[in-house]
């Protein structure tokens, strides 16, 4: 395994988890409304959804490793998604997400479906796969390795949001501190965007 690629992947995942998106906010808001145990099925669905997206995108990108044009296009698609997330996160009012109520407990299907509508998820998956699938071994093995590392980091993070997220409830609901936190997160994502801009698209294997 390429240790530099592994370090880079963990760094990107760290930034992703340090900037609360729909998954994190939903996890702790849902636990607050329906209890910690209600998140077991929801987080399981989130994990399955992440895996389905990563495996599908990863295999597509792996199949296009010999095409410089395809890799460049996919790189910039990911950059557009990530740029949109930077702008969106800077404008979002977290209180509208944290305080919204659902009519029923969210379960497995909802957790899966959320990932396909999660712009942040798509941004990071496309970026991660274009940058790291080949250095991590390529093919099914490389895609599965990235997926295993991603889930190994993200599932504990969602569990942590379930248990400690409520302590941050007052911060997210605050009319000035909540948006300030999200603007800080947007700035962090923006730095990651600049780093990938500097690095540029991957070259064919």
* Low-pLDDT residue intervals, each spanning 5 or more residues: none
Roughly how much helix do the residues carry, as a percent range? over 70%
How far the N terminus sits from the C terminus, by CA atoms, comes to 16 Å
> Which secondary-structure class do the elements indicate?
mainly alpha
Number of domains: 1
**Biggest sheet details:** none
Strand content: under 5%
**Care to count the β-strands?**
0
Radius of gyration: 17 Å
Order of helices and strands: HHHHHHHHHH
Account of the protein in words:
- The chain is mainly α and about 200 residues long.
- The chain has one domain (about 5-200).
- The chain contains ten helices and no strands.
- It has helices at about 5-20, 20-35, 40-65, 70-90, 95-100, 110-115, 120-130, 140-165, 170-175, 175-200.
- α3 (about 40-65) runs antiparallel to α8 (about 140-165).
